[in-house]
């Protein structure tokens, strides 16, 4: 009986240590992976080259039900959770540069993080805005006959978001970020098509990760995305997608802290054009694997697109 009590007490101490470490990591990590992970997360037909002079106004609402919290090279804490409610306002303008189809766009993400807990430990929620995303893109190759389009996209995220170094959860991240993305859109006949993308995200340092912490740095994060699309009619399409991310190991004052980005997510999307200039789309998604943060058990994204 005495030995059993000692074992239970030791297990409780280890659990408290891991929970404390996870809370420290959350406080140190700049920003939180929630809802649409970033502006670089594509939806079906994202790389369609529209005529110069076209503008798009888009609005998104994303909900995420997150469960288990896992720490890299550590345990998974089951009694964990997070509810995310995220909105995105996006504007896109298409034009030409040096005879190439090109454009610019801007994203502003805002929302709330609610009902957060790690290992049963409740956390205060957060509300505010993420860093604005400023972007430019250009198509290097467009072939209408073969239905092939190749695009490169650049993103810059200055530290404009809501950030409190005394808070465990934040939507902003107090650092500069930049991303380079390359994408391929390939059609096969009238109905079937593929969207493929790779991006690498680069991070500046956060010098206010939490009080007295020193300097937080992060290695490059890599991501691949793929959509298989089927257009049933000119107005209605459905798609199945996959997103995989890796890399992003973090250091505090030069020392690895056991946090990184590793996500494997399956996605389902349907889109419908109410008229030629107005589309609504719905995505449902689920994390097959998530390391270094919360696992999104269920996610939904509603998007409305207006062309003018």
From TrEMBL:
InterPro entries linked: FApF (IPR025737)
Superkingdom: Bacteria
Protein name, per record: Transporter
UniProt source species: Methylobacterium aquaticum
């Amino acid at each position: 009986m005495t030995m059993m009590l000692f074992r239970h007490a030791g297990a409780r101490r280890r659990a408290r240590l891991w929970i404390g470490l996870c809370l420290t990591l959350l406080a140190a990590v700049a920003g939180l992976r929630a809802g649409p992970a970033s502006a670089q997360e594509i939806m079906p037909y994202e790389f369609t080259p529209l005529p110069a002079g076209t503008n798009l106004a888009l609005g998104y609402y994303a909900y995420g039900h997150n469960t288990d919290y896992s720490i890299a090279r550590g345990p998974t804490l089951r009694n964990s959770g997070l509810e995310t409610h995220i909105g995105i306002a996006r504007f896109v303008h298409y034009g030409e540069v040096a005879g190439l189809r090109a454009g610019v766009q801007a994203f502003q993400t805002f929302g709330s993080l609610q009902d957060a807990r790690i290992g049963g430990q409740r956390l205060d929620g957060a509300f505010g805005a993420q860093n604005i995303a400023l972007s430019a893109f250009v198509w290097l190759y467009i072939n209408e006959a073969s239905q092939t389009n190749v695009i490169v996209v650049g993103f810059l995220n200055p530290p404009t978001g809501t950030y409190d170094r005394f808070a465990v959860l934040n939507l902003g991240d107090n650092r500069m970020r930049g991303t380079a993305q390359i994408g391929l859109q390939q059609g096969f006949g009238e109905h079937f098509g593929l969207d493929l993308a790779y991006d690498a995200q680069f991070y500046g340092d956060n010098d206010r990760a939490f009080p007295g912490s020193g300097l937080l740095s992060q290695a490059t994060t890599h991501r691949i995305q793929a959509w298989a699309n089927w257009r049933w009619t000119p107005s209605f399409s459905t798609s199945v997608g996959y997103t995989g991310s890796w890399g992003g190991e973090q250091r505090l004052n030069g020392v690895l802290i056991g946090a990184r980005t590793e996500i494997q997510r399956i996605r389902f999307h349907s889109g419908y054009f109410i008229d030629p200039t107005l589309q609504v789309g719905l995505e449902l998604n689920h994390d097959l694997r998530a390391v270094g943060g919360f696992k999104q058990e269920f996610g939904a994204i509603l998007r409305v697109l207006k062309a003018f």
